[in-house]
């Protein structure tokens, strides 16, 4: 089915005038956040149109006047999270502009731990497009164009998504699970054991910033 961003919102009577697409998306984000915090079925799998309707105090049928499928709701929810990422004013330092943008992107995804796993969905929402435009404009000021611009945009995006997903998953694991993971690193893995990869001698923030240093040399 065509993405919600490529279909006009249906112009038809609504049975629940007080129900809006904005309210639906806000409720969906609330349910997804609760699930990620361990208060319900985990992840996007735990979101159903029936649960969403119950959260809003309406029938499932009422939802379908505003959205066609659960996939629509997830696409709208992801774009809403991107709306929380501040778009800074451009400066003369394009690298600093990229850092500011993607730092806010990472924080937004960590605040909504279900979001990184959904970012591979069609990224056509207005909030996503506005931030991608800012990122590419900054990279263009840095002298990138053509395939190099596309590759770097994707490299940065994949780095931020992967970092947020890894951090969210690792944080969700209990201290006992993390300790158990470390115990599996033995003398048979001398490089891994000596690298500090699982020992966490550095903070996630430090690792993230150093990764950006390496990408934007």
How is this structure best described in words?
- With 217 residues, the chain is mainly α.
- The chain has 2 domains: 4-81, Orthogonal Bundle (Arc Repressor Mutant, subunit A); 88-215, Tetracycline Repressor, domain 2 (Orthogonal Bundle).
- The protein is 59% helix and 0% strand.
- It has 10 helices and no strands.
- The protein has helices spanning 21-36, 49-56, 60-63, 70-82, 94-111, 126-141, 146-172, 175-183, 190-195, 204-215.
- The chain starts with 20 loop residues before the first helix and ends with a helix.
- The mean pLDDT is 85.
Tell me briefly what this model is:
This protein is mostly helical and 217 residues long.
Fold topology:
Blueprint: H1 21-36, H2 49-56, H3 60-63, H4 70-82, H5 94-111, H6 126-141, H7 146-172, H8 175-183, H9 190-195, H10 204-215
Helix pairs in contact: 1-2, 1-4, 4-6, 5-6, 5-7, 6-7, 7-10
The total number of structural domains is 2
| Major beta-sheet overview | none
The H/E string reads HHHHHHHHHH
Which structural category do the helix and sheet elements fall into? mainly alpha
Principal-axes geometry comes out as flat
Helix percent band: 55-70%
What is the residue-mean pLDDT, rounded to a whole number? 85
Q: Indicate the low-confidence ranges by residue numbers.
A: none
Give me the CATH superfamily of the largest domain.
Answer: Tetracycline Repressor, domain 2
Q: Under the CATH scheme, which class of the largest domain?
A: Mainly Alpha
The count of DSSP E runs of length 2 or more, i.e. the number of strands, is 0
Could you please say which CATH topology of the largest domain applies here?
Answer: Tetracycline Repressor, domain 2
Annotated CATH architecture of the largest domain: Orthogonal Bundle
Number of DSSP helical runs = 10
* End-to-end Cα distance: 41 Å
């Amino acid at each position: 089915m065509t993405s919600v961003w490529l279909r006009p919102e249906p112009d038809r009577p609504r049975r629940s005038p007080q129900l809006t697409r904005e309210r639906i998306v806000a409720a969906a984000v609330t349910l997804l956040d609760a699930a990620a915090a361990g208060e319900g079925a985990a992840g996007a799998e735990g979101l159903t149109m029936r649960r969403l309707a119950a959260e809003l105090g309406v029938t499932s049928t009422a939802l379908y006047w505003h959205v066609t499928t659960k996939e629509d709701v997830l696409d709208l929810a992801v774009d809403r999270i991107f709306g929380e990422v501040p778009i800074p004013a451009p400066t003369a330092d394009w690298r600093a502009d990229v850092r500011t943008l993607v730092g806010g992107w990472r924080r937004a995804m960590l605040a909504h731990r279900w979001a990184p796993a959904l970012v591979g969905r069609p990224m056509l929402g207005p909030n996503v497009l506005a931030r991608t435009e800012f990122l590419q404009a900054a990279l263009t000021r840095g002298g990138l164009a053509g395939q190099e611009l596309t590759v770097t945009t994707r490299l940065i995006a994949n780095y931020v998504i992967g970092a947020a997903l890894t951090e969210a998953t690792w944080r969700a694991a209990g201290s006992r699970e993390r300790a158990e993971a470390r115990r599996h690193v033995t003398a048979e893995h001398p490089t891994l054991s000596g690298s500090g990869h699982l020992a966490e001698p550095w903070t996630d923030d430090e690792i993230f910033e150093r990764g950006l240093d390496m990408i934007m040399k």
